[in-house]
Specification:
- This protein is an alpha/beta fold.
- The protein has one domain: Oxidized Rhodanese, domain 1.
- Helix content is 29%, strand content 15%.
- The chain is built from 5 helices and 7 strands.
- The strands form 2 sheets. Strands 1-6-5-2-4 form a 5-stranded parallel β-sheet. It has a two-stranded antiparallel sheet with strand order 3-7.
- Strand 5, helix 4 and strand 6 form a beta-alpha-beta unit.
- The longest helix is centred in the C-terminal third of the chain and has 12 residues.
- The chain is globular and about 40 Å long.
- The relative contact order is 0.25.
- Keywords: Transferase.
- GO terms for molecular function: transferase activity.
- It comes from Janibacter cremeus.
- InterPro entries: Rhodanese-like_dom, Rhodanese-like_dom_sf, STR4-like.
């Protein structure tokens, strides 16, 4: 089963702004939230929902992910999954779809995007799109 689709950070922002039920779930690790930053949705009266897909530093999958998602996001709500580059968030959108969410989306390029030729991030994604964010 596949999820509802891949959206750019700008399309995600527009969905969050236009639909009061829409939710942004950041599936990165606590370390990433604290040291890299988080999407700031306060301008639209929302809060990002942090639910780790996997833990740092071991990379162990969060066995309680779907339970935590059920506690935070109604099944009928559009849910946008965000990670660093779009890989973990795609897996989270797949899992959410399999668990009953019909409007689960992956945010393309994530929060920081892929690495460039020098191995640096922040070449694409939420931050580079100029969308609101703050240091964790």
């Amino acid at each position: 089963m596949t999820y509802a689709g891949d959206l750019s950070p700008q399309q995600t922002w527009e969905g969050l702004v236009s639909d009061p039920q829409a939710v942004l779930v950041d599936v990165r690790t606590q370390a990433e939230w604290a040291f890299v930053g988080v999407a700031d949705l306060t301008a639209i009266g929302k809060e990002m929902v942090p639910i780790e897909w996997s833990s740092f530093p071991t990379g162990t999958l969060n066995g309680a992910f779907l339970q935590q998602l059920h506690e935070a996001v109604p099944l009928q709500a559009p849910v946008y999954f965000l990670c660093r580059s779009g890989a973990r968030s795609a897996a989270a959108a797949e899992a959410a779809t399999a668990a009953g969410w019909t409007s689960a989306y992956n945010v393309l390029d994530g929060f920081e995007g892929p690495v460039d030729e020098q191995g640096h991030r922040s070449v694409a994604g939420w931050k580079q799109a100029g969308l609101p964010w703050r240091q964790g």
